[in-house]
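fold-stage: in
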Amino acid sequence: MNENPADLAPELCVLLAAVLGLVCGLFLPRRRQWRVAVICAAGLVAGLAVAGVAATRPDLTAFGAFRVDAVTHVTRIAVLGSALLVVALAAGRMRDHPRESEHYTLVLLSALGAIALGASSDLLVLVAAYLLASLPAYALAGFGKDAPGTEAALKYYLMGALLGVLMLGGVTVLSGVGRGTAYGTLRAGLADAPQAAVAAGVVALLAGLLFKAGALPGHFWVPDVAEGAPPAVAAFVTTVPKIGAFAALYRIGADALPPDAAGWPALVAVIAAATMTLGNLAAFGQDNVRRLLAYSTVSQAGYLLVPVAMAGRTDLARPALLFYVAAYAVTNVGAFAVVLAARRDDLAGYTGLLRGSPLVGLALVVCLLGFVGTPPTAVFVGKVLMFGAALDGGYLWLAVVAAVNSVASVFYYLRWIVPLLGRPDGPLLLGRGASAVAVAAAALSVALGAGSGIALAAP
């Protein structure tokens, strides 16, 4: 065990920025609270810089419960980068808001919870991280205090509370029969434990983490929050918590459970297939772009569960998950940034976007085709790795289901792309800040896809 606080430097940067932002917000007048956004952004940038340095060092376990390895490095960078883009997206809408400082502080605290969720190597830390990632997100969902946002926040909270209680039950069962809460202890203890108890504990534990991931059966909150919450918040809650959730799911499958315990590969594979299929079917008839993106994120959760199911069965599982989750994060934030820039939720409102604003229109096309898995976007590389992991892990049927769903998803993405090619009815007034974020995210998606060889060659 290494008890050097410097090993948690990225997390400490985020925590310090959140505390400073909250304290400064208490004393700054309303028209100067934009400085809190600067403080929070600086903390995220500092965290990214320190996380990049930490990625060059050997793996270790800090304080006996916080793993610092490749999974944590990618989780840190993806979460902090996504949170930074969300802060930039929210800056324009939140300017001079009575609770502007609280908004940025909640974003940072939830992001901190997502990082801890992905780095946890102990069930008790996992539960604490789950709560830290969840509670600020509930407040963010209802931040606008309007009817749709309040309804979305209530549904989000109730489902999180219900599935969180099931998760606590699963932690109790697994720690009891596994004689500990550390993942290494569980892996050894669960090998001789009653399989019925292990299966019950695993299913209950999955309930909470699948809720955070937005996967079946805990996906019902996703479309309501994506439509009812402010667009920047929708981008955040459909991106950042998922990163930590998938990293946590991978660790449980690879480090905490004995091989094939509770039928882990088959169970998660079935959930993955059902999630991607349901997400695609629900997205087909959507005319509201935010609900369309919401069901798109559900289907993407299904694809991301494929390498989770293959954890421990193939060496391709970890790179597939890590690359895909980073690619998904930048693509999803980019798509929501276009929605925020256009200020329209209906498909018809995007008619002529490519003619009126070529850069923003092209950014949207890149993000939507990226979700399909079109080269040279980053998600294309992630899907290739995902298919490879499924095949190498002996799950040909799951690769076939994922391929069919990928092809089927082209239909509803094209429903959004086709209007972009038309003639605009009038001048398009786009938000500059959100437009810049959208273009930057699309460019980063292409750059990550083109440079995938370098990224995957890194140790």
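fold-stage: in (second)
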Amino acid sequence: MSASLVERHIVAMGGGGFSMEPDNPLLDQYILGLVNKAQPKVCFLPTAGGDSDRYIVKFYSAFLKFPCQPSHLSLFNPQTLDLRGFLLEQDIIYVGGGNTKNLVALWREWELDRFLKEAWEKGTILCGLSAGSLCWFESGVSDYPGNGVLKPLNCLGFLQGSHCPHYDGEANRRPTYHQLVAEGLLPDGYAADDGVGLHFINGTLTRIVSSRPHAKAYRVERQDGSVQETVLEPTYLRG
């Protein structure tokens, strides 16, 4: 298949997946179902969580129950020096939550941003929640300072516009995102409640799915110095 015919997938989850919904596998199963293989290779990147052993164990505990070949890549204790080759072998790269600013800085230092873009352009599915959702956009709302403080943050820019995860999960997410977009500190973008996955194909939002029956996504746009918020109804993934 020529490069021009390869579909480039990113599933950006506002929250959910194995770490937030251990008894609700709908989003993770949706992502696995995007690969037409009996045993797709799934690599977990726990960078934003400081490569926490507990987080890594949670990933394996969840994905060893699925028909796939799970692995992980730690930058604090890398199991291979050929990071590019390892990532290009994967069918799915799943990015965990945590500190997005640290994630972006470490990835750029290790050149993972370049390797991930190459993998994506060759057809590897990129996905993640929270920091692992925000990182793919040009910018967005991040709690990287800690203590509940939210700030705008520049990210990788694989997807155009801005993003706000955990839209319904934290009370100050929505008003902060609205303010930053209204003031022109963030470009127009998409927000996602916990349990919602924004599925982009070739950079275009193509499908919205949800593991929770009442969760939603939103288009947030600046208009005349204020903000227009449009509800985007997802498809509920029934078990």
